[in-house]
Write a structure and sequence with these properties.
- By secondary structure, the protein is α/β, with parallel strands linked by helices.
Length: about 325
């Protein structure tokens, strides 16, 4: 990365190291970023702290229909945008989520099978256990990215934004054959007004065009990280982590991040991080193992170089160059 950007330890950008007195124990933590950016891995490693209770994607609209006990808010769009103008529709539900108050009545509405019933029992038990022990809530949710400012202000959250190389994100989406429902973003006038209006014509074009995962990944990455670039200028007390930095040296970087968040880095936490980052785990991720956390974290940062052709890499580089230059240098493409 360019030296002029002043990156320091933890893979943080300039001005993002916490000052004394910030990050009081008990403050909720939000881990967000693009989909397939490593939020799950980072969130789960932070949840190795004994004081943390992990909450998985309450704003994931696909999961929400079958998971309404975790968050009873009306999440009907991919990457929903919550702001002061519509926050009253979400505030009480998310307050309950952060207090580990599981809505059993809502949860039962999502039960359609024995597997769903087992899931409900597990979630309800986990929420109750976390509430009784006074756990510090950690929300891992890439779909909360555009709502991060409202969440931070409303619930006084410690915010961690994960940044991942555009080729790595595109490679992951291509591997999994995941497209982008741009119509969900176009159907949110407040989101367009506040953040994505410069991209509206491109989203319209992509929504109507034949499916092309690489082009969709390029546009999604540019939109997400153009907003992250604004956040970085506005919020000097947030954490902005490049996935590549923390994944390259997890046993060095995580202890510093734990300390900044005022989490206890125990031998047990170190063991969990080592187990999920050591080299004998595969550096790629098969489709059936898309959500596996055990891998060679360092090798995973560059697996796109071997999975994508030079032509596709150049296509991604050229397509994201206007935004990627904020976070990655020319050397990061080699």
């Amino acid at each position: 990365m360019d030296s002029k950007r002043g990156r320091t330890g933890l893979g943080l950008f300039e001005g993002k190291v916490r000052q004394k007195g910030i990050g009081v124990a008990g403050k909720p933590i939000l881990v967000t970023g693009s989909i397939r950016s490593g939020t799950t891995w980072i969130g789960r490693m932070l949840a190795a702290a004994r004081s943390v209770g992990y909450i998985w994607e309450p704003l994931n609209f696909r999961w929400g229909a079958r998971n309404p006990g975790v968050c009873s808010a009306p999440v009907r769009r991919w990457y929903p945008y919550i702001s002061a103008e519509n926050g009253s529709n979400y505030e009480e539900a998310l307050k309950n989520t952060l207090e580990f108050r599981y809505s059993l009545s809502k949860g039962l509405q999502g039960v359609q099978s024995r597997m769903d019933l087992r899931r409900l029992f597990y979630e309800c038990s986990a929420f109750l256990g976390n509430r009784l022990r006074g756990a510090r809530p950690l929300v891992k949710d890439p779909f909360a990215l555009f709502s991060a400012e409202w969440l931070s202000e409303k619930f006084d959250m410690d915010v961690i934004i994960v940044i991942r190389h555009p080729a790595a994100v595109a490679c992951s989406l291509l591997r999994l054959n995941w497209g982008v429902p741009f119509e969900h973003l176009l159907d949110q006038p407040l989101l367009l007004r506040d953040h994505l209006h410069p991209f509206e014509p491109e989203m319209q074009q992509r929504a109507e065009a034949e499916r092309d995962i690489i082009e969709e990944a390029i546009l999604l990455w540019r939109m997400v990280y153009s907003v992250v670039a604004k956040y970085r200028r506005r919020h000097h007390n947030w954490f902005f982590l490049r996935h590549e930095d923390i994944a390259s040296e997890p046993l060095t970087q995580f202890p510093a991040l734990f300390e900044s968040l005022r989490l206890e880095f125990t031998p047990q936490a170190a063991s969990v991080i080592q187990k999920h980052s050591i080299p004998e785990h595969p550096n790629g991720v098969a489709v059936q193992e898309a959500f596996s956390l055990r891998r060679d974290s360092r090798a995973a940062t560059s697996s796109w170089k071997h999975e994508l052709s030079e032509a596709v890499i150049e296509r991604i580089r050229a397509g994201t160059s206007d935004v990627a230059a904020e976070f990655y240098s020319k050397e990061d493409w080699k």
